[in-house]
Design brief:
With 859 residues, the chain is an alpha+beta fold. A six-stranded antiparallel β-sheet has the order 37-39-40-41-38-42, covered by helices on one side. It has a four-stranded antiparallel β-sheet with strand order 1-28-27-26, with no helix packed on it. It has a four-stranded antiparallel β-sheet with strand order 2-3-4-5, with no helix packed on it. Helix 5 (568-585) runs parallel beside helix 7 (654-701), helix 7 (654-701) runs antiparallel to helix 8 (705-715) and helix 9 packs parallel to helix 11 (765-779). The radius of gyration is 37 Å and the shape is elongated. The chain starts with 6 loop residues before the first strand and ends with a strand. Keywords: Coiled coil. Residues 1-362 form the PTHB1 N-terminal domain. Residues 407-485 form the PTHB1 GAE domain.
């Protein structure tokens, strides 16, 4: 065996009668495994995309079934494959596939299996661009000096450079004096594109100059524009006197940045400014090349393949090695495969893919096996405990831990976890065995977003019901304990690029210097960021638009902006909560937030109108469904009468009418269901905007905690819409009550009585007028407060059981007159626990009251 023959480490033949070319081979860690091992990506002109991860048992062995990770036919010829950071919002690697008229970007992911051949890999299309011109080749890089992402430039067959900023098309520019396309590459050091034109010249074009040049779509005189713009656009030109096969830009730590050009008979190395560093005359016809890092400082090694099935290794212009290949390579790469660095990957035009190495075969000597040692069980047990601890810590991140500690004996305890839709939990009901005093139970609950709209609240509650036995009642007295929790903001949104333009903007003023987002939003800021002061953040909601948060560098202000009004709410609330928590840790008690801008009532009214329109549609669908159902049953009765008749009679098209009516009922039911889903989304958006409105009014008027509670009870009386009672009539009644009591201007308004029945209004004009008047009264000095006398003189009837209303306990045996508040569905807030009206006892300030001798009435 010759020393100068490439050692076959792994090889395979791709397909049958498939063709490959220079851009069809790529090596990279395309599945983001993080192991440092490259995968081999191959695309063919027949449209087949294959990904390999070679694992030969011994060098020279053929392909194993598990070596082929993925094989898929894309139905269009694949001109070039590249791997880079092509998807916004993530720095993971993605695969770009160039077709003749299309550019597709895929995400490659794998799922580990339980057996040797069980690993599964799949590709997911992230986005695609349909090209207006036939593509030739492409290059990518951080155009314009962007960080953390790669942009793509495609050269068309007619000489146009089409630039794509990931998911969007940026611009297109024609190259001057173009005749035939040549190789194209990008130099990040000079931020320029380098190509070889049909004039046999190496030309460099600055990205910034191309970006500000005349757009390709606006050119009027094609040839004259090309010739005249060439003098303006081109950066430098070098005449090499021959057509180029490939071009590459390399920049290693120990070597200066260089531009390598492989010609038909010469090999050139250029500086960044186009000057020749060196050139090498070749005595053969080259087919491909690849520069790679050299072990000698100041030099660069280059692999050059030729049509004589040879692969030459050069160190600058010195030939260091020559090796024989079994095929003529059209593309060559250097990869790290299975902990083996520097594997040479070559591809021929007929699909011969080979991984090889240079030199002699490695030694087959194996060290003798040492004597087996005794097993140290204590060491194994300690290692097992450490691994179990790591597993336990890892499982904690999958959900929310809900620990409960019982100080008394609890019989038949059960736990209910409640979150507001569209949020949901994996399990909302838990039943435990009887618990003894000072014992605890811990459950893990995972919350997730179920639906295509953002939630209006991230708060949830846990309710534990149990029985405590006594001497007189061994079966136990039913009791309820409740606690609240808050879900993280990362559940519904993720970090994103900030947006400069937005339709809605809010400014929150504070009395303290602005705080860096590195401190209060550490979970949304990149820890590797070089900036000590981060004053702008972007939030991308999973089902909505983008929201941007900015902190002023010169004033004590924060701005929140978004294209949707309802998206401002969660970010505004999170900002206020995190600022309060930050200054509370610093023992700062005088921190306060204020709002001095205009209340966005018009945008808020648009959300009200949208929700009310869907409610009207729901009533129309209900009426139409009732009519069609009556018609359907009437036709059924007619048909049944005809079938029971002993004398056969013609159906007179009753069967056709029945089928038509049935289809109408199904269509109306589908439309009603779709309208119901749209109404739920509209109500969720309305609740978010209402929360934002309440917060802005409270900051604007500097309301106290009690006044904010009244405001929330007024604008947020319902947790969800019902056919019997809607949000519009409930809020209208509550605001009308406030305008006639604490916000009234005269005694005449207080004398007006409220209707005892709430019904759906014809339109929202009265509601919008009352909301505007409510804000106007507050601006003129009105205050939200309830006194005992006014409450007694002006009773308000609230038919909804989930609304907030005061209750009064009539004095009975051993009871004193008191007042409390009922919050949501009749639960009574008490010391440490709460009960419902159906329970046998109420607790009022620690005193037990017997419901058999007392009456509870609401007004």
């Amino acid at each position: 065996m010759s020393l100068f023959k490439a050692r076959d480490w792994w090889s395979t033949i791709l397909g049958e009668k498939e063709e490959f070319d220079q851009g069809c081979l790529c090596v990279a860690d395309v599945d983001n495994s993080g192991s440092g091992q490259d995968k081999i990506i191959v695309g063919s002109y027949m449209g087949y995309l294959r990904i390999f991860n070679p694992h030969p048992v011994k060098p020279g062995e053929g392909i194993q079934p598990e070596d082929l990770l993925l094989e898929v036919q894309l139905r269009e010829p694949i001109l070039q494959v590249e791997v880079g950071k092509f998807v916004s919002g993530t720095e993971g690697l993605h695969l770009a596939v160039l077709h003749c008229r299309k550019l597709c970007v895929y995400a490659v992911s794998g799922t580990l299996g339980n057996v040797e051949h069980g690993n599964q890999y799949q590709i997911k299309l992230m986005y695609e661009h349909n090209l207006q011109r036939t593509a030739c080749n492409m290059t990518y890089g951080p155009f314009g000096g962007v960080k953390g992402r790669d942009l793509i430039c495609i050269q068309s067959m007619d000489g146009m450079l089409m630039l794509f900023e990931q998911e969007s098309y940026a611009f297109g520019r024609f190259l001057p004096g173009f005749l035939l396309p040549g190789p194209l590459t990008y130099s990040s050091r000079t931020d320029s594109f380098i190509t070889v034109s049909s004039c046999r010249q190496v030309e460099s074009y600055k990205y910034q100059v191309l970006a500000f040049a005349t757009d390709a779509d606006e050119r009027q005189e094609a040839e004259q524009q090309k010739l005249s713009s060439g003098k303006r656009v081109v950066d430098w030109v070098l005449n090499i006197g021959e057509q180029a096969l490939d071009i590459c830009v390399v920049s290693f730590n120990q070597a200066v940045s260089s531009v390598f050009v492989l010609g038909e008979r010469n090999f050139f190395c250029l500086k960044d400014n186009g000057q020749i560093r060196f050139m090498k005359k070749l005595d053969y016809s080259p087919s491909c090349f690849i520069p790679y890092c050299s072990v000698k400082e100041g030099t660069i090694n280059t692999l050059v393949g030729n049509h004589s099935k040879m692969l030459n290794v050069y160190q600058d212009i010195t030939l260091k090695w020559a090796t024989q290949l079994p095929h003529v390579p059209v593309s060559v790469k250097v990869a790290n495969l299975q902990d083996l660095k520097g594997v040479i990957v070559t591809l021929s035009d007929n699909g011969h893919l080979q991984c090889s190495y240079l030199g002699t075969d490695p030694s087959l000597f194996q060290a003798p096996r040492v004597e087996s040692r005794e097993i140290n069980y204590e060491e194994f047990e300690a290692e097992m405990k450490e691994l179990q601890k790591i597993i336990k810590e890892a499982t904690k991140t999958q959900g929310t831990l809900l620990p409960f500690l019982y100080r008394v004996t609890a019989q038949k305890p059960s736990l209910a976890v409640c979150v507001q839709a569209p949020l949901a939990v994996t399990c909302d009901q838990f039943v435990f065995d009887d618990l003894e005093p000072d014992s605890s139970e811990t459950v893990v609950v995972s919350a997730f977003l179920k639906g295509n709209c953002s939630p209006s609240e991230l708060e949830g509650s846990c309710v534990v019901s149990y029985n405590t036995p006594t001497e007189l009642n061994p079966e136990g007295i039913p009791k309820v304990a409740q606690c609240n929790f808050r879900l993280p903001l990362r559940l519904v949104c993720s970090p994103a690029q900030p947006s400069k333009a937005a339709n809605h903007k809010l400014t929150i003023d504070t009395n303290k210097p602005p705080v860096s987002f590195l401190t209060i939003f550490s979970d949304f800021v990149d820890p590797s960021s070089e900036d000590d002061q981060v004053n702008v953040l972007g939030f991308q909601f999973s089902t909505s638009s983008k929201t941007t948060l900015l902190a002023s560098k010169t004033s004590q202000r924060y701005r929140i902006q978004s294209d949707q009004l309802e998206d401002l709410w969660l970010i505004t609330k999170e900002l206020i909560l995190r600022l309060e928590e930050h200054f509370k840790k610093q023992n700062c008690k005088d921190f306060a937030c204020t709002f001095s801008g205009a209340i966005p009532l018009q945008e808020y009214f648009e959300l009200i109108d949208r929700h009310f329109e869907l409610r009207l549609n729901a009533e129309k669908f209900q009426e139409l469904l009732s009519e069609r159902a009556v018609q359907f049953r009437a036709i059924e009765r007619r048909l049944l009468t005809r079938f029971k008749d002993k004398t056969p009679a013609p159906l007179q098209h009753l069967d056709t009418l029945l089928e038509g009516t049935f289809r109408e009922v199904i269509a109306l039911a589908d439309a009603a269901e779709e309208n119901q889903a749209n109404m739920f989304q509209a109500f969720t958006k309305l609740r978010s905007a209402t929360h934002l409105l309440v917060t802005l009014i409270s900051l604007w008027q500097k309301l106290s905690t009690d006044q904010v509670a009244i405001l929330e009870a007024t604008f947020l009386p319902l947790a969800e819409d019902t056919p019997e009672l809607g949000w519009e009539e409930a809020v209208d009644a509550a605001i009308s009550y406030l305008l006639r009591t604490c916000l009234s201007k005269s005694s005449k308004e207080q004398a007006l009585s409220l209707s005892s029945q709430l019904s759906m209004p014809k339109d929202t004009s009265r509601l919008k007028k009352n909301i505007t008047l409510f804000c106007d009264r507050l601006a003129k000095g009105g205050r939200l407060s309830f006194s005992t006398d006014s409450a007694a003189q002006q009773p308000a009837v609230m038919p909804d059981s989930c609304s907030t209303s005061p209750i009064k306990i009539i004095q009975g045996r051993g009871a004193s007159q008191a007042k409390q508040k009922v919050f949501g569905c009749g639960l009574l807030a008490t010391d440490g626990w709460c009960v419902g009206p159906g329970s046998p006892f109420y607790m009022m300030n620690g005193e037990k009251l017997s419901t058999s001798k007392e009456l509870v009435e609401t007004w």
